[in-house]
Structures are given as C-alpha cells and as structure tokens.
Specification:
The protein has about 300 residues and is an alpha+beta fold. It contains nine helices and 16 strands. The strands form three sheets. It has a seven-stranded mixed sheet, with helices on both faces. Strands 9-8-10-7-11 form a five-stranded mixed sheet. The chain has a four-stranded antiparallel sheet with strand order 14-15-13-16, with helices on one face. A hairpin with a 4-residue loop joins strand 14 and strand 15. Helix 3 crosses helix 4. The termini are far apart. The structure holds adenosine-5'-triphosphate and magnesium ion.
C-alpha cells in the first residue's frame, strides 16, 4: 500500500499554525506579509509553500509544541500560554522549545478569578480551595511559588462555569476583555501569565538547509513587526527649530536630516513607531515644522 505520509524534507521548512480559531487568520496574514504563499491542499492540513520552500501545517494549537518537539514540524505559531503550559508539564522530558518572537496578536492573560461576591484579600485566600483550570502545570507552579495549598481541578473547557456547577470555588483561565468572566459572575483577581501569540522553535539551531530558511523568516518577521504600527514622517523646519521638534518625537528613530536652501532649512525624515495623530502633527507645526507628510510603510529589511 502506498504511504500517504509527508516525508521529512530537510531542505524545506515546516511551520505549524492553528487550523481554525483565534490565531488562525492572524498567523496566516502575518506569514503572508512575510512574502510567503501556499498552494491550498484539499484536506487543508498541509499547504505546500510556493516561491519559498516553507510549508504550512494546519493543526490544533495544543498540538503545536509537541509537533515541534517530535520534529514533525520546525516552527509554530502558538499562544505563549500553550507553549509555557507544555514546557512546564513536560519539563526535562522533551527537547527544549524556545519562544523565538512575540508576534503582537492574540493578547490575553492567564488569570485567577473568584466569585464576584468574594471580598478579595489576597492570594492566601485560595488556600484549601478548589481551582478549575485547563492550565494545571502553570497553576501548580504558581501555587507552589506562592506557598498555597489548593486543589487543582483539571477541565478541558468551559472552565468559567465550574463554580456555578459546584465543581470548583475559583478558576484559573484565559481572559482578554473579561466579558466571559463577568457573564459568569466571576472577577479576575490575579494574573499568572501575560500571553500573546509567539513563534516557537527548537532551542538548537537547525544544522541543514532549514537554518537559512528560518533565518530568512525571522528577518522578514522582524521587518513586518517593526513597521506594523510605524509611519514615515517627512517635514521641513529651520535649523533653530530642531531642539524644539526632536523631543516631540520620542518614539521615532533618529531622523535623516538634509540641508536645503543653502543650509538653514532642513528636510527631515523619521520612522515613527507610535501613532502619528493629527494632534501630534499640530504640535509639530506649532514647534516650527512645515510640509508635514505621513507615509505608510510597506516593507522594511534592516
Ligand atoms: P484549537 O481547536 O486549535 O485547540 P482552542 O479552542 O484551543 O482551539 P482558541 O480559543 O482559538 O483555541 O484560542 C487560541 C489562543 O488564542 C489561546 O491559546 C490564547 O493564546 C489566545 N487567546 C486570546 N484571547 C483569548 C481568550 N479570550 N480566550 C481564549 N484564548 C485567547
Ligand atoms: Mg486548543
């Protein structure tokens, strides 16, 4: 019988992303912004990279750290919460996986939450209580660090309803807006981990063609992440206005400055990493800038 297994291709890089869910679309969009494109496969589990030899594997997010540890894929986009939970749970038992880059989407926090009516006096209050979570390794590590003895109730989903069902007294769950907790009459009281989507990969460098491909992907990612909220600001000013203008650009790279008009008028160009609002432009104008222009940045290679 012919094997349907996808052979390990050391000259290609395989990146795992979530098949569907919160991280699926932003992960694809980010990789596409790095210039990657794929041929969609009918089963949508494996997408062959076109142009660059970088393929996609579409899986459940929980599987990503294990797939990297097994060498079934080389890199993965996954929430820090999942990566750290599995790292703590399997400490020493699997090859080390590193967070290579924080990707700036999928922000949430792993937080302890208690019923709204509890007067919260501090973490010691959790002693002897039952805490429901899908992150038992991270919760146990936090309890141990804080010298709290509590019972950890492991649930694979619907954690926030556990107190109302009488399964637990408190929960340790992912929170972004807090609306789900509020809907279940719970209040967040303590953060255990600040999370976002990260690019994960083996701690050791690849020793074949994948090393150059991974470097290329990281270089492009850095370019995309660096300019994500950045704008190019162009303006002119007289030389003596410079000392007033530069403090108004604390989030900008040192500007490129050219002298025009025989030397007293300067043309400035600066990469701003924060929002360049109308208010900021007006402040710059009042401080002596003119001809202000804000340009989007499409690509950058440092
Ligand atoms: P899968 O089917 O792939 O296992 P899932 O249900 O485990 O999906 P999602 O709910 O899509 O996963 O969440 C994926 C990741 O999104 C989480 O691990 C976390 O890093 C991030 N995230 C951001 N905000 C939230 C939130 N409010 N609740 C849960 N996860 C969030
Ligand atoms: Mg999952």
């Amino acid at each position: 019988m012919a094997s349907t297994a996808i052979p390990a291709a050391r000259e290609r890089l395989r990146v795992a992303i979530q098949k569907s869910g919160r991280l699926a679309d932003p992960a694809r969009a980010l990789l596409a912004a790095c210039g990657l494109a794929w041929r969609e496969d009918r089963d949508r589990l494996f997408c062959h990279g076109e142009g660059a030899p970088i393929d996609l594997l579409l899986v459940r997010d929980d599987d990503i750290p294990g797939l990297i540890a097994d060498g079934a894929c080389d890199l993965g986009v996954v929430g820090r919460n999942v990566l750290r939970e599995q790292a703590v749970a399997t400490r020493g038992a699997t090859p080390a996986i590193r967070e290579l880059r924080a990707l700036g989407f999928g922000a949430c926090r792993l937080a302890l939450a208690v019923p709204e009516e509890w007067p919260w006096q501090g973490a010691a209050q959790l002693g002897g209580r039952r805490i429901a979570t899908s992150y038992p390794a991270l919760l146990r590590a936090w309890l141990a660090d804080n010298a709290i003895e509590a019972e950890v109730v492991v649930l694979s989903g619907s954690v926030e309803i556990a107190p109302r069902l009488g399964q637990a007294d408190a929960v340790c769950d992912l929170v972004s807006s807090g609306a789900t907790l509020a809907a279940n009459r719970l209040k967040p009281v303590c953060d255990i981990l600040a999370s976002e989507a990260v690019l994960a990969g083996p701690a050791a460098r690849f020793d074949d063609a994948r090393a150059d491909l991974a470097d290329m992907l990281l270089r492009r990612l850095d370019g995309v992440l660096r300019i994500r909220d950045s704008k190019l600001l162009l303006f002119q000013a007289s030389r003596d206005a410079l000392a007033r203008l530069l403090p108004l650009l604390p989030d900008a790279e040192p500007p490129t400055i050219c002298a025009i008009d025989g030397g007293d008028t300067l043309a400035l160009q600066s990469l701003c990493h924060g929002a360049v609002t109308w208010q900021r432009l007006e402040e710059l104008k009042r401080a002596g800038a003119c001809g202000l222009m804000v340009l989007p940045i499409e690509r950058m290679l440092a």
